[in-house]
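lol ok so funny story. i was supposed to be doing the assay writeup but got distracted and ended up predicting the structure for this chain instead. priorities right. anyway since i did it might as well share w the group, maybe its usefull for someone
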Amino acid sequence: MAIQLKIDRVLQGSFDLKALNLLFVFQVNCPGCFIYGFPLVNKLYWKYRESGLNVLGLSTAFEDFEHNTAANTELLLTQRQTVGATRQALGENYAQAIDFPVAIDQLTTGTALATPANIELVCEAIAGFGNSSRLEQEALRQKVKVYLQKSAQTSATFTLNHLPGTPTFLLVDQNLQLLDGWFGHTPEADVIQRIEKYINTGNRVTQELCK
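and the output, tada:
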């Protein structure tokens, strides 16, 4: 399954896809993203940057749109300023710099997002859709259309991929094919095991090609 990545603009670094990419989806008004997400992702960025892992952060919004903005993300990156619930939990400034590239998810409306092409993309990602009858497929398309249209404001990447919340972690290849993904607080050892599975696979392939 391919992830739909819709970027409004890049705020920091070079947001280019490589052979193996860890996409860290966060909100600035999400204390858990700062407590569990950023420290781990910063560590992974420095630990594996020479080993083939490309780390990318995507600032999104699915709630609290007054706080989860591009402007507040820029303040976080340039001045380490926090907002909303994050400020209440951690104080006015975040303790560490954010070192990896960061972009903004595309902010849109549910109506604009509910195009026939997007509806089909969401449906095709649902298990069993291709094996359903025509009537069942059409019924599901209508449900997806209603789901997409219900939001006055929404973020394209977050909504099209039906992500569960933030922080979300997506491991993808250069074609955005989803290799692995997880949500919320996950033990560091488990995350490292997931990542190294693909790093080691890539290294073995390279070694075979060089023989």
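Residues 204-211 have pLDDT under 50 and may be disordered. The CA atoms of residues 123 and 129 lie 7 Å apart.
back to the writeup now i swear
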